[in-house]
Specification:
With 241 residues, this protein is an alpha+beta fold. The chain folds into 2 domains: 100 residues, 2-Layer Sandwich (Translation Initiation Factor IF3), CATH 3.30.110.170; 104 residues, Alpha-Beta Plaits. The chain has 4 helices and 7 strands; from the N terminus they run αββαββαβαββ. Strand 3 and strand 4 form a beta hairpin. The longest helix has 26 residues.
Length: 241
């Protein structure tokens, strides 16, 4: 019995000795390598070259046929006015056509019949922004009485997005190096790098007014201003031991 115990102790001692002699890099394969993470933002300012706008005609009448006829006449006049202002017919798209009856009441609360409301709305792409004010004046004079949702954009923004990505990565690298210097460590291998658009292109207005240009020749002034394309980048480095 004592001999078996002695042999068991010898085996355990041998195993422990071999473990102690193993190389340091293999002693704990599950050890966590410390990392340093950083984020950066890149912004590029561009001038819009296209605008999207909803233009509608709203008509009302106690007679549904009269309401529709009046609305159709105005809508055709508005469409003709748009093409006269240089808008390509393919850039005029009907987005809504609604006929809604609304019951009316007398002063005593008794029913007084129906009133019919007709709405015809088109989504228009304007590619000549210098003509925006004149275009709005023209459609209003032809019967458009609902104009909303003007949005400015850039048709070809890939180059600006690429530049914003580069700026974001450069910003993240600079921040990582700054953190490493402040912490007294050295950056090792780059282990991750991601970039993504922070937000859709947003209008940018400068307080001095230099970024906003208004068409003062039109009675309906519009200002495209500038837009900012923003990209964020995140990365992580191993910290050298």
């Amino acid at each position: 019995m004592k001999r078996k115990i002695l042999i068991t102790l010898l085996v355990i001692g041998l195993i422990l000795g071999l473990s102690a002699c193993a190389p340091g890099g293999q002693s704990n394969p599950n050890s966590v390598i410390p990392q340093l993470s950083a984020t950066g933002t890149g912004k590029v300012y561009v001038t819009p070259d296209v605008a999207y706008i909803y233009i509608g005609v709203h008509s009302e009448s106690k007679n549904v046929n009269e309401a529709m006829s009046k609305n159709n006449t105005q809508a055709r006049a508005v469409a003709a006015s748009l093409t006269k202002q240089g808008v390509d017919p393919k850039d005029i798209q009907t987005t809504a056509f609604n006929v809604v009856p609304q019951q009316e009441f007398n002063q005593d609360g008794s029913p007084a019949g129906n009133k019919y409301m007709v709405d015809n709305t088109v989504f228009v792409t304007v590619r000549n922004l210098s003509n925006m004010g004149l275009l709005l004046d023209a459609v209003v004079s032809e019967g458009a009485n609902s104009i909303n949702g003007i949005q400015f954009d850039v048709q070809e923004k890939e180059q600006a997005q690429s530049q914003a990505r580069k700026l974001a990565v450069q910003s993240a690298i600079a921040q990582a190096q700054e953190l490493a210097d402040a912490g007294g460590v050295k950056l090792g291998r780059l282990v991750s790098l991601n970039a993504y658009s922070a937000t859709p292109p947003m209008p940018f207005y400068e307080g001095k007014g230099g970024a906003m240009k208004t068409d003062i020749t039109s009675s309906a002034p519009t200002a495209a201003g500038q837009m900012v394309i923003s990209v964020e980048a995140s990365l992580a480095y191993e910290i050298q031991q």
